[in-house]
Amino acid sequence: MEAVDAVPVHLNGKVAIEDFDLTVVEAENGDKQNEREIVLGKNVHTTCLEVTEPEANDESTGDKEAYMASVLARYRKNLMERTKHHLGYPYNLDFDYGALGQLQHFSINNLGDPFIESNYGVHSRQFEVGVLDWFARLWEIEKSEYWGYITNCGTEGNLHGILVGREVFPDGILYASRESHYSVFKAARMYRMGCVKVDCLVSGEIDCADFKVKLLANKDKPAIINVNIGTTVKGAVDDLDLVIQTLEESGFSQDRFYIHCDGALFGLMLPFVKRAPKVTFKKPIGSVSVSGHKFVGCPMPCGVQITRMEHINVLSSNVEYLASRDATIMGSRNGHAPIFLWYTLNRKGYKGFQKEVQKCLRNAYYLKDRLRDAGISAMLNELSSTVVFERPIDEDFVRRWQLACQGNIAHVVVMPSVTIEKLDDFVNELVEKRSTWYQDEKARPPCIAADVGSQNCSCDLHK
Ligand SMILES: Cc1ncc(COP(=O)(O)O)c(C=O)c1O
Questions:
Q1: Pairing with 98, which of 33, 200, 271, 373 sits 20 to 30 Å away (CA)?
Q2: Is position 384 annotated as part of the catalytic site?
Q3: Domains of the chain and CATH, by start
């Protein structure tokens, strides 16, 4: 079996596991030339807010209350400023959940199976299942045929989807493109699965020619495939139909593969993009997951995971202590999150999301065009609102705009909270700063043709 890179590999029944050390230097393919420094964020320990023991007279003086109130007020101000300058992560920061403030006094917990009430009565399953039904309709699977739950995040959706795949095919090999989210490779490590990394096209989409070669090299083992509905860095959407066709052409019948669709980023956007390939359970897929705090906009991390009912029984067991069934990754589950999702889905509906998706795509094109017009290398995939461009060399600028960076590229993910005014502020500032970074002939903007294609690169060689 072929396995690539530093992912766990079954070797004659033994398993080699990469450790979880946070290393500062990452070696790609063992190729020294590709070694690069990863810039880690500041150490928070030097600025953390200490917890102090209450004084005996705190209640009478009110000092401690006043201190805490001032800390919170400063923190709130900081959040407002940071929200104003956020561009790099795919979070919709524009929402108003004032109506739900009345619920914060309750410890709402949906521990156990969403469809089977547990003995703990302070739950929100009625909202949770309502939300799941909405997503089941979106992804075209009958109520009686699906199972799902509201997760803590997109990562949990991936951990669950891949676990279901592993339970369906215990000796299956996990295939995932190199640009898959790190949680996919973490799942492989956690479950000690053989994992094969598949190459990508320049766009970031999975390269099905390479996929085929790797499938054919491992024909004797079932295939579990992670399909990206929006990759983390470039927002590329894997061609689901081509993935299925490649499996079939390589001799994998439907009873020998399991597809998990990682829709953390665009799972909820793609259905509203014209000409986009459809993610639907009418195709031979096993599960789909999406993050709830990204495009939907939720103040706490959350997500949705939907799979086929037929698969879930393999994974679940009854728990007497709960009077419910255990088929989720986590035990206790945030019962507030489903209410926030329910609230937004009700307010916006399919039409509201469609409008927001169109706005995001329009604004993303606007940003890409403004960058290109300013002579800055930039790329935007057709089905995406992630604009990839040359990494700013000033880390303060990167931090100010909270840009996500990888190698020589950075990106802005245009979400509903990203307005034209914000994009203008960003580009104007970038253009101004850049003229100082590159005023000296010796310092030149990097060539990022390998990341974005030569037609999108404005370096000295390609412009
Ligand atoms: C493609 C993809 N999958 C999974 C995740 C993980 O989602 P979460 O941050 O909700 O755990 C992300 C996060 O950005 C992502 O981009």
A1: 271
A2: yes
A3: 101-347 (3.40.640.10)
